[in-house]
Structures are given as C-alpha cells and as structure tokens.
Amino acid sequence: MTHQEKKPLLQVTDLHIEFHDHGQPETAVEDFDLTLYEGEIVGIVGESGSGKSMSALAIAGLLSRRAMMTRRGEILFDGHNLLTCDRKTLRSYQGDEIAMIFQEPMTSLNPLLRIGPQVEECLKIHHPEIGKEERRKRALTIMEQVGLRDTETLYRMYPHELSGGMRQRIMIAAAMIAEPRILIADEPTTALDVTIQAKIVRLLRKINEVAHTSILFISHDLSLVAQLCHRVIVMKQGRIVEEGRIEEIFEHPKDVYTKELIDAIPKVAL
Ligand SMILES: Nc1ncnc2c1ncn2[C@@H]1O[C@H](COP(=O)(O)OP(=O)(O)OP(=O)(O)O)[C@@H](O)[C@H]1O
Ligand SMILES: [Mg+2]
C-alpha cells in the first residue's frame, strides 16, 4: 500500500508559532505543514534556531501555552486539534499516544529516582489498571527490547550511574512502554559519540519495524536522517524550504540550503 492510500495519523496544517513573553512577538515557526502516516519515519533537518524543536514541542503538546502563541494552524490527531482541545484530552495523548525523547536524557530523567519507576511512569499515569508486578515486568521487558542487559540491576540504579548511551536507551524505553503511535525524537543522538549514535539510530529503525511506530526524527545531521528516515523536511528560519522522499532530496535538491547540507556531509558517509 502506498502512503497516499493510507490515512494520515497526524496532520499539521499552517502552523504558526510566536513568542510573546518579552515585549515584541517573535516568530519561531511559519507555515509549517506535516502529514505523518502510520509506520512512517519523517526527519526534520535544519540549522540551529530554524524552528525544529518548536514544531516538535507543539505537536507533543509540550509548548507552554503561556509563553507561546499559535497565530494559526491545526495539529490534527485522532480527530482532535491538539492546539485547541481541552487539557484533559491533550494529557490523555501525551506519553500514551505521542511520546517524546530529548537530546540530553539527564534533563528528562529525575536524578533522585531509580531507573525502574521512571521507565514505568507513563503506564502508572495512563494505565492505573495495570498492577505493580505487571508494570515491573513490562518495564524489564521493554528495557531488554531497547538492548539493555542485566535489567534487574539497572532497574534499581540511579540515572547518574549509567553511561550516556544507556540513559538514552532508558529514555527510549520510558517513551515506548505505553506503545505510543508517534515517537518524537529531538536530536536524540547529538550528545553521544558516533558509534553509540549509529546504535540508537538502528534501535529506532527496529522500533519502527517491529511496533510500526511513526517517528519524527529531528537532527542537524542530514546523513543520519538519510540512514533512518523515509521522508525529510528541511527547515530554515522558521519555514519549510523543502520536503520530499530521501532519494528525491539527495538526487534533486531544489533549495540552495538543502544543497549546502548535502555538500556538508563527508563523502565517506554517503
Ligand atoms: N522561549 C523563547 N522565547 C522566544 N523565542 C524563542 C524561545 N525559544 C525559542 N525561541 C526562538 O524560536 C526559534 C526556533 O527555535 P527552535 O528551538 O525551534 O530551533 P531549533 O531548530 O530546534 O534549533 P537547535 O538546532 O539549536 O535545537 C529560534 O529563533 C529561537 O530563538
Ligand atoms: Mg532544537
């Protein structure tokens, strides 16, 4: 089945984001459109400050509604506009249907809590019907599935006792435990060294293949995006400058900025 025949899982139309917390409103994102199909991996690539994270946070419903103003737009998921729906509806999706992982797991993991309860947190919030023992079992299983060993020991450890690569796997396990339909990964490998980066990218691909999770993968690195994604969106200064299937973008980049990004990839990586 081609993507055209499938129903979009998420449809973002004409998203505009402004900040208005310090005097003059500042535009962060303009005219952002995105259609994400089930089982699809879409990359968002672009220079620093181009609006990648703001777009992702808006989709995850994590932008502060106080500091941010969406002038226009719609983020349609499951028949609801996530920009205007009530907080209860939004919270019911957060983590359970749409989960997010970030660049630096130490900022998302609570240093005072052991690993196990943090991996289980989403189940505890969204599925209180699942008992303590079952929750623990599922946490250990998902930790194994993301490639962690000796999970019983890890379960009782604290975040600072783990390496950066292991912490990122813990974040992925915590994001995947409730089997979300969309996983948003904002620069999930930037803080890691190259070999660990490649392993995390392989893990995301496996998650996509096994669980059919749709993934929005944000990166500065077009070569990583090319290894993982089916489709890519190129952003510059808050706008989408180009979008298409990976092969199309590499073979026929239309925008000068996209050509620069392709030229910046070391040739051995291609
Ligand atoms: N709290 C804020 N108040 C005002 N402007 C902000 C705020 N946070 C971000 N911005 C602005 O929004 C724009 C988009 O930022 P965003 O964080 O989405 O960029 P990015 O593409 O993720 O960059 P990076 O690659 O560095 O993570 C930038 O111009 C930034 O200066
Ligand atoms: Mg960012």
What does this structure look like?
The chain is an alpha/beta fold. It has two domains: 3-97 and 182-269, 3-Layer(aba) Sandwich (Rossmann fold); 106-179, no CATH class. It is built from eleven helices and eleven strands. It has a six-stranded mixed beta sheet with strand order 7-8-9-3-10-11, with helices on both faces. A hairpin with a 2-residue loop joins strand 5 and strand 6. Helix 4 packs across helix 5, helix 4 packs parallel to helix 7 (164-176) and helix 5 packs across helix 7 (164-176). The longest helix is centred in the C-terminal third of the chain and has 18 residues, at 194-211. The protein is globular, with a radius of gyration of 19 Å. The two termini are 29 Å apart. The mean pLDDT is 90. Bound molecules: adenosine-5'-triphosphate and magnesium ion. The site of magnesium ion has 3 residues, from helix 1.
Notable characteristics:
five-stranded antiparallel sheet, alpha/beta, six-stranded mixed sheet, binds adenosine-5'-triphosphate, Rossmann fold, 270 residues, binds magnesium ion
CATH superfamily (homologous) name of the largest domain: P-loop containing nucleotide triphosphate hydrolases
CATH fold-type name of the largest domain: Rossmann fold
Bound molecules: adenosine-5'-triphosphate, magnesium ion
Poorly predicted ranges: none
Our measurement of the CA-to-CA distance between the termini, rounded to an integer number of angstroms, reads 29 Å
Global Rg: 19 Å
The first-level CATH class name of the largest domain? Alpha Beta
